[in-house]
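so i finally got all the pieces together for this one. its two components total, 586 residues if u count the protein bits. some of the lines might not be protein, just check the labels. i wanna see the whole assembly predicted at once instead of chain by chain like last time, that was a mess tbh
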Amino acid sequence: MSDIQTDDAPVTASKLAGAAEQVGIPDPHGDTLLARAVTINKPAQELYDFFRDFANLPSFMENVERIDVLDDRRSRWVVKAPGGRTVEWVAVVTEERAGKYIAWTSEEGADVPNSGTVTFRDAGERGTVVTATILYDPPGGVIGKVIAKMFQREPAIQARRDLNRFKQLMETGEIATPAKNREEFEEMGL
Amino acid sequence: MKALTWHGKHDVRIDNVPDPGIVNPRDAIIKVTSTAICGSDLHLYDHFIPTMQSGDILGHEFMGEVVEVGPKSTLQKGQRVVVPFTISCGSCYHCNKHQYSACPNGLPADNQDIARAAYGHEMSGLFGYSHMTGGYAGGQAEYVRVPFSDVGPIVIPDGVDDDKVLFLSDILPTGWQAAEYAEIEPGDTVAVWGCGPVGLFAVQSAFLMGAERVIAIDHFPRRLELARQFGAEVINFEESKVYEALMEMTGGIGPDAVIDSVGLEAHGLFVDNVIDELKVRTFTGTDRIHAIRQAIIACRKGGRVSMPAVYGGFVDKFPLGAFMEKGLTLKTGQTHVQHYMPALLNAIMEDKIDTTFLISHRMPLDEAPKGYKMFHDHQNETTKIVLKPGMTAAAA
């Protein structure tokens, strides 16, 4: 079998080795690739504007404890990790096109080197297809990834849940929770 | 408050639990005045549905009075509402197509993984029906938190008795959708497997949609009698061979449309059913599907199969060959309750549909555990139990 993909499937669905190099993230950091797409019934510009204000992201990203916006392009991310710890990095926006596309990469010294893109593609009456493509180095290699998965902080699971929460927040103005009251909600979190 | 909670197979109890409150802006809190035990609650009672947790509050057929509203709710305190069992946002792609039970926004993101793995997609949230459907507290309680209260609950005019409208929450729309999915044409003969509430409402609905004949199949005489009262001909599968009877009754053609309102716990001593039962007991299969097999075999060539019945997992011996060779069409799915509620409320107000005939027992919430046991053990006499949280034991 060739290492070059010949079909029309997204490279992120590739079974072949080397897909991570073909994904086209500017200034890539990390060797583990994940991608998730979700269709949100809102205009691309509205979704982009909300997402580009990074201070908004913790409202639907469960494991992001805090994002400090440092300047127009740089932001510090404090993210929950297994075992009650946190990991940190500074993300830099490397490219952006208003209403369409954001690319970022982590600065030197990141606890979890990562980079990625978020695209907002107009889908007509269905709204906008939001695709997140992320390259990262899992902390602690394969074992770290298994442990993270046990604690449900595995990035692929988190990315899917976060995008679904983003969709819920933008489409309905709130995020679905089974909590019976505020006290239970505070215990459960997002 | 008091609530009916699940603790394991055949173990449900009345527990004291914390009161619900407003969490999200579109929420409302409903004080429950009537709530029914559903046939599908028995699947939980029998522990056929995975992802249940001890202490879960059951109940997805309920109505009551609005006692608290969030800032984005459009309801007002004091209004009486019937609440659909599906939790749907009203504004996503699926809701815009009135496919309410496919709404992904009512299902908490953390609860979507199981359905994604099992079914390929997440479905809407449901009240009181396992953590795969969201882990929401159900309505067999004194109070319930109702998300998306601006688009789900339907307001009931003053002076209309609970018992007339309660079944708008699930089983009446489910029976109606089942008949609609049978795509009935004038002159059609429709066969309905299972004369539980959904089957009986499907019988009623099929006639309203122009079916010339409806043939109802069950083994509980009381339930067959109710079907007969609506004009159905009946087959008791303990007395008669179903396929042979249907063929002769339809001049060798078979029913034009068949409706399976039995589901994953089919009764009866049939070879395939015994094998299914064995597989369920040995954890090599989950669903007993005798009724849908028989329905497909009996259905006329080019006919329609409608399947409101609940199935949860995997089956084998599905007659795919018969299905293909005869060119059948199958329509199924959880009910898009919100789509049907307004028209069915009108039909009730105009006395075109009566649902009260179904209720065999009314009891206080405190007696719900007894109600589950009765409904489970005595399906002939117990056609429907309605729990009244406001009722005292003395009044029952």
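Strands of chain A lie at 32-40, 64-69, 74-80, 86-97, 101-106, 114-122, 128-136.
Chain A has a mean pLDDT of 88.
anyway lmk what u think
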